[in-house]
Amino acid sequence: MPNVQRLERGPMMTGGTPLRSLDEEELLARILPVFPLGEDLVVAPGDDAAVLRTPGHVVATTDTVVLGRDWLDAWSSGADIGHKVVAQNLADVAAMGGRPTGVLVTLVADPELSLEWVLDHAHGLAEACAAAGVAVLGGDLSSAPAGVVMVSVTALGRLDGEPVLRSGARPGDVLAVRGSLGLADAGLRLLQADAVDRLPEAVEHQRRPQPPLEAGPEAAAAGATAMLDISDGLLRDGGRIARASGVVIDLDPRELAGDVDALAGAVGAEAALDCVLAGGEEHSLLATFPAGTLPGSWRRIGSVRAPAEGEAPGIVVAGRAVTHTGWDHFRTT
Amino acid sequence: MPNVQRLERGPMMTGGTPLRSLDEEELLARILPVFPLGEDLVVAPGDDAAVLRTPGHVVATTDTVVLGRDWLDAWSSGADIGHKVVAQNLADVAAMGGRPTGVLVTLVADPELSLEWVLDHAHGLAEACAAAGVAVLGGDLSSAPAGVVMVSVTALGRLDGEPVLRSGARPGDVLAVRGSLGLADAGLRLLQADAVDRLPEAVEHQRRPQPPLEAGPEAAAAGATAMLDISDGLLRDGGRIARASGVVIDLDPRELAGDVDALAGAVGAEAALDCVLAGGEEHSLLATFPAGTLPGSWRRIGSVRAPAEGEAPGIVVAGRAVTHTGWDHFRTT
């Protein structure tokens, strides 16, 4: 767990209506009307629990964002954080082959937090959920010590077939991606450099990632053997599939050249390569498919083979070992 | 939202192995083996999301506890907090008529928090889940500013029939309870008075409530018309059923005399009455049933009638209006 610095109070804590001036009922009366109700909802928020119609299997995941650790007030609005925390949770549902159906949202906040930030945040949550056809099932509100703002989302989904795990990749499969590579990390670097105009779409992807949610069930139906969403970088997440499956994944640098080129003008060639190979928070889907079954909307970026004699499962680039910091091997190919 | 005081660092922050000395993988390797896997689990923690087998309907609820707001280090161990946060979530599932099947757990903590506290907490979570046949489906770990420790649980359950809402009580129904009344509040008062020996079972119920989970589906099957768990007090929660259902609930003080007497020796007669009528965190189940259908394990404590001409829906005691602070009306009956 990395250390978190205590933050000075930024705009979200000042200049509006502080939460301490409302009781919980008043606050909920402002927030709840913002949220969408999905088709599968049987009992909406307000009772002891929500009830969701579902056949077969339920997919469940949770992810939390903390002010100062996962976002800065100066870089992201309340609505941005709403979009982002929903996106990263729904991407995990899609990465199992599931269709997201509902979320529960918990806000734990310093009572000095402004109501205006909370409502902006609620609208961001609602937009991201509505775009995905997902209901807000309920949540919880709690106060916290000075300077603390934390949003925790649990996402549920339905799974019509079998789940796609990380452990199913087989020698002979192709490795493919659906969505962008490196864009969110490039956006973070532009925010850090105060140069957001150089590639606004990268900054937008950092603030409001849009995972290709429909691609999850599509991949599952097409026979994907392993899948995850890229949250910690292509090398690290690809390595997870490789180790869980006991295979070697070989990335094809020719297939990544266009991704690197697209970012190089904004962040420089070396950083662009880092973004594509190691950039997190992208939330594109990475999957393996048996040869010949790749859906047309997915892009092949590598292959899967059995480990050689004495070789450990893992990820390589054009047949050569690469570590998280060992870009030299890659750059010389 | 009540204000929260910043806390001085108590024992949970000192004297052990601080979380900052472990990386997330090492911490998970210590925590995950503690947790039970339920019968309905298809994919266990470790992939993008967990997968839970379920027919029909999913019940979902979430509840969060924050150090200094919901518990004090001096009064509750890590295991106590694990028991309590699971119990209050599972009670909400049971109060819909559902059977709890799984939980997701998020810990957001100051990196100075001790590993020993976290493992003790994990054991408490695990014990409470195992006792209920509930799986730990996954969760999230995040660091937080100094002094912050927060646990957020989302509970899922299956519902074989129709959900029991708060809004279904009808004139002629009987009001009944399953479980204790006032015990958790009496325990809190004994902790505050540093007099835990006066009624240890009350302190134990405050620290580790044990909701009668099996009574939820039982009540649903028996035809309960409305149900909730008592988290904010009998009067307030009973009033919620009354208003949601558009009825008047009339508590029978003769049926509550034994509950008051059981606490009076430890906290005094006046406080005992307050505990029974207004004590929160009890997590017993409160429900209404059509006359003649009350299961033998439930205890009748009142009746349901239509509002008189010009009378608002709500809760009364022996036919007389009572407010949250208006105990006089009650005490004179």
From TrEMBL, chains A, B:
Positions that bind Mg(2+) 4: D48, T61, D92
Residues bound to Mg(2+) 5: D232
Pathway(s) where this gene product acts: Cofactor biosynthesis; thiamine diphosphate biosynthesis; thiamine diphosphate from thiamine phosphate: step 1/1
Residues at which Mg(2+) 1 binds: T62, D63, D140
EC number, as in UniProt: 2.7.4.16
Coiled coil: none
Residues that coordinate or bind substrate: D70, E281, W327
Residues the record lists as binding Mg(2+) 3: D48, D92, D229
Pfam families: AIRS (PF00586)
Record domain PurM-like N-terminal: where: 46-158
Bilayer-spanning residue ranges: none
Family assignment from sequence similarity: Belongs to the thiamine-monophosphate kinase family.
Function (record text): Catalyzes the ATP-dependent phosphorylation of thiamine-monophosphate (TMP) to form thiamine-pyrophosphate (TPP), the active form of vitamin B1.
Other noteworthy facts: Reaction mechanism of ThiL seems to utilize a direct, inline transfer of the gamma-phosphate of ATP to TMP rather than a phosphorylated enzyme intermediate.
Name the UniProt record assigns to this protein: Thiamine-monophosphate kinase
Record organism: Terrabacter tumescens
